[in-house]
Fold this sequence. Notes:
This protein is mostly helical. It is built from six helices and no strands. The protein has helices spanning 10-26, 30-40, 43-60, 65-72, 76-83, 89-116.
Amino acid sequence: xxxxxxxxxxxxxxxxxxxxxxxxxxxxxxxxxxxxxxxxxxxxxxxxxxxxxxxxxxxxxxxxxxxxxxxxxxxxxxxxxxxxxxxxxxxxxxxxxxxxxxxxxxxxxxxxxxxxx
Length: 117
């Protein structure tokens, strides 16, 4: 039996997930988080989780399945599976954060252009 096939005590599972989340939250900036993720996950794991976020983000931006399949090298089944997650509160929150960052960056660029004139 593989370790991943064993059922973890629910309370312990909650504790270790909170510890994992707190650890990421305590890192001071994107470069520290990126360093941690690159060291903690192997390449295929990190790519898989990153693709999940990219898929749900691109679906929100109305990209077609075909475009997502071609660019991210995933199947239609994978896209459909991830699409089913798009209404979950945590996913919505993450997408809101991404969009807020995009908005802030756009305005920062506009302000820089005005200030340079």
